[in-house]
Write a structure and sequence with these properties.
The chain is an alpha+beta fold. The chain has one domain (31-117, 167-285). Helix content is 31%, strand content 26%. It has six helices and twelve strands. A four-stranded antiparallel sheet has the order 5-4-6-9. A three-stranded antiparallel sheet has the order 1-11-12, with no helix packed on it. Strands 2-3-10 form a three-stranded antiparallel sheet, with no helix packed on it. Strand 7 (205-206) and strand 8 (211-212) form a beta hairpin. Helix 4 packs antiparallel against helix 5. Mean pLDDT is 82; it is low at 17-21, 67-71 and 282-287.
């Protein structure tokens, strides 16, 4: 009986591994669904470099949950898009029971479109430059030493933020990947992955007026289904000697590598190429 149990466990492991290998093979067969050239800003290194088997890359992206024009956190996952994703948004957000109603709704799986260095990134850069300009104007008229020091630190942070932040943005979501691909045909700029979206209810707090406005609902990309990308044996030497805690010090260093990340027919990402980038002077010395 004990022998049978051991054999069953071994068989289960073999079947599981076979399933994984088959899935990987089918995913990578044929032309990639998308192929983007990303840097360490979008793919942070995790795991110990002296234990290469545990190393992996973690996808890092940005997404705007805030609609600056309307002073709401709706962003790209607004009420109409949430409804298209299968959420029940019929109840008026201003209804007394709206908060409990929307809180009880389950998360939804969807296909997520990620844009690399496109209009979303350009908008972010423009907004960052505008904030720097406002801070510099305040610095020009500041009198107190502590106020000047604080403003100088904020300006330095904003400059560094442009260099350390991911240029990859989640911009759209849908239930049909083919429809999304037709909407975003450039496979070198737009990547589609599976993700999970949650819906939230807001009473409509407006930071500009410090008052509550009209209540609304908005969505948040909770996670992508494959946030970790395994580093195969073929590419482990490219990461040899690199510290995995780089993500905590992005304001001090330039990206150390770039990766061609491809996504297959089953929307699973894998590493196709790796190239180390030349070392540059720490960003902290540039400002």
């Amino acid at each position: 009986m004990k022998k049978f149990g051991i054999l069953s466990a071994i068989l289960l492991v073999v079947i599981s591994n076979l399933f994984v290998l088959t899935n990987v093979y089918l995913n990578q067969s044929g032309e990639p669904e998308s192929s983007l050239l990303l840097t360490e800003r979008e793919l942070s290194l995790y795991g110990q470099s002296h234990e290469n088997s545990g190393m992996h890359l973690r996808l890092s992206w940005k997404t705007s949950h805030y609609d600056s024009k309307n002073k709401k956190r709706t962003g790209w996952l607004h009420r109409d898009r949430l409804q298209a994703l299968g959420f029940d948004t019929d109840l008026d957000p201003a209804h007394p029971e709206a908060s409990d109603y929307y809180r009880r709704q389950a998360v939804k799986k969807a296909y997520i479109v990620f844009e690399f260095e496109g209009s979303a990134w350009d908008d972010w850069v423009a907004g960052n430059a505008e904030e720097i300009e406002k801070l510099e104007k305040k610095l020009a008229v500041a009198q107190e030493p502590h106020e000047k020091s604080s403003l100088e630190s904020q300006i330095k942070w904003k400059h560094n933020e442009k260099r350390r932040q991911s240029h990859l943005f989640a911009i759209d979501a849908g239930r049909d990947a083919l429809t999304l691909r037709q909407r975003y045909p450039d496979k070198s700029r737009y990547m589609i992955l599976e993700g999970v979206i949650n819906m939230y209810h807001s009473r409509g707090w407006n930071p500009a007026t410090s008052k509550y406005d009209t209540p609304y609902v908005y969505g948040v990309l909770q996670k992508v289904e494959t946030p970790h990308i395994n580093i195969s044996k073929k590419f482990r030497s490219s990461f040899q000697g690199l510290k995995s805690n780089y993500g905590r010090h992005r304001d001090k260093y330039h990206p150390r590598f770039e990766v061609r990340l491809s996504v297959g027919s089953r929307f699973l990402p894998w590493i196709q190429e790796v190239r180390k980038l030349p070392e540059k002077e720490p960003l902290s010395k540039l400002f």
